[in-house]
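Researcher: Checking consistency across runs. Here is C-type cytochrome biogenesis protein CcmI again:
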Amino acid sequence: MSLYLWFTLMVVTSSAWIIWFLYRPLKSNKINLESSNITLGKQKLLELEQDLHQNLIDEKQFNQAKEEISTTLAIELQEVSNIQNNASNNTWVLILILVLLPVMSISVYQYLTPESNMSQPLESAEKPLSLEQSANKIVQYLQTNKDDSEAWRMLGLTYFELGKLDLSIDAYEESYQINPKDPRLLVEYASMMISASDNQFSDHSVKLIKQALEIEPNAPDALYLAGMFAVSQRDFILTKGLWQRALSALPEDSIDRVALVNILSELKAAEGNKNTPKRFVSVRVDVSDKILKSRSSEDFIMIYVKAVKGKPMPIAIKKIKLKDFTGQMVLTDQDSVIQGNQLSTHEQVIAVVRISATGSAMRGVGDIQVLSKAINVADNPSIHLEVK
């Protein structure tokens, strides 16, 4: 129940009590005093006349008693008139109170209630902004605040969440030009560039990682990316050193520690076993007619495997246009994204099927994705996935 409703009920209750208190005594006196006094006066006169006729009193006594009765009756009638006047005055007082009580109560309530409390329910009822609306608001803000590096960074991150990688990179570039000494910004910018280029390292992304490490040598994210670049160059000794430094820099309660420990274990296993047997994962995919009708034939279908735990980066991947897909793909070490992180070095993986309009490695808006359960690579498994 709202505060206004409670307030109204209180005013109505108070008014009803005042009406009962002031008006009930007036209504409870149902005797007509004026009529009663006149009747009594007449009765006394009749009794005097009877006494006179019976010679119980003389003429002088009769006249004297009659005069006393008339005087008394006049006084009582005056008192009745005063009572009626007072009753009339009480009625007007009652009306005045009933008018002033609500007006005064509302005025005091409005005076004591802050405006911020009145507007608070309206503000709390507003719905949170969507990612698209947030991006539009940041763009409007940047029209008059073009030198706000943090706003450009937030715009880049928002575009990344929306799957607009090109716009995300442009926004990060603006932020980088304003504040090139922020290691967090440098690492995020490099990650965006790597994601947009199907997990390939460009000269610019490598430059950003180096700059971040020059500013903050023990930045865990920068060390991890540097280790990934070393893996792509097949420099596993450097990779191990960089990732161990990153592990030492992470807090004990960080969830990234578990993922990094697993990656280091896999790297150690790969170093200790150069003659790893050939492994493969065969993936058969059935795409329903409903999905095919809703997608363009130029859309891409990507089939890849990723680690069960840790970073969601593909281990091995194949990509083809939907119109050219025959229904089955086989992933081997030759399809590995990074040479040092091959399919055959993993014990368990998860197979992923994704249909995308852009073909980007990062999942975008409108993409359809299906995942398998964890599968053993050593079994050279053949799995079946349905996209409905």
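Researcher: Does this match what you'd expect to see?
Model: One thing to look at in this run: The first helix runs from residue 3 to 28.
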